[in-house]
Amino acid sequence: MIDFIAPVAAWCAAIIESIGIGIITLFALYALYNAVTRALKKEESDSIFDELRQLLGRGILLGLEFLIASDIIYTVAVQLTFETIGVLAIVVLIRTFLSLTLEVEMSGKWPWQNNK
């Protein structure tokens, strides 16, 4: 049974990782396209820049969530050792820190603060 689960989990992790990379790429391209079209319409540059950062930040956050999920699946189902769990913990901490700082950068407040 384990001989069947590991390859399936590896494929699932690869698919989810590809989705994460695709999301980041598509959001980056869309944000850039949106900024260029708005700049050609002579809109205010501060507004364009703010929206570009917001769109790109959202794409990175969403993509990071998929990348974390793929790392968890791969580590738990394919290579479950103390070493890989330690590496996974470090990767998840780094990506969580990135997500947290991106959220603060985009919203201007900590995620647990009220929306007041």
UniProtKB/TrEMBL annotation:
Keyword set, alphabetical order: Membrane, Transmembrane, Transmembrane helix
TM stretches of this protein: 6-34, 84-102
Keyword Transmembrane carried by entry: yes
Keyword Transmembrane appears in the UniProt entry: yes
InterPro entries attached to this UniProt entry: DUF1622 (IPR012427)
Classification via Pfam families: DUF1622
Protein name: DUF1622 domain-containing protein
Organism: Marinobacter orientalis
